[in-house]
Amino acid sequence: MGNARNIAFWLILFLLILALFNLFSGSGNTLQSQAVPYSEFVTAVDKGSVSEATIDGETIRYRGTDGAQYTTIRP
Q1: What are phi and psi of 50, to 5 degrees?
Q2: One-character DSSP codes across 55-71
Q3: Considering Cα of 45, then 50, then 51, then 57, what sign does the dihedral take?
């Protein structure tokens, strides 16, 4: 029984360390977005260089046709 308790302790410790590492290292699979002025977003839309956009309140997140991600605040 002591052996099972020892294994459980090390497993929990390992999972805790892994969780802390993930918390402080950030999410590796999310792309960083570049903050741009709203006028630059409007220009990109007019040129047809926006492949998708998401509006969340005043925040607009969009992906350019080049694959880069951008964030702007609408007026």
Answers
A1: -115, 120
A2: EETTEEEEEETTS-EEE
A3: negative
Q: What are phi and psi of 28, to 5 degrees?
A: -75, -20
HEC sequence for 32-47: CEEECCHHHHHHHHHH
Six-digit token pair at 21? 């590492």
Q: List CB contacts of 73: < 8 A, sequence separation 6 or more.
A: 38, 58, 59, 60
Residue 60 near residue 71, CB atoms below 8 Å: yes
Mind listing the pLDDT tens digit of every residue in the chain (75 residues)?
Answer: 678 889 999 999 999 998 888 777 755 545 578 999 999 999 999 999 999 999 999 999 999 999 999 999 998
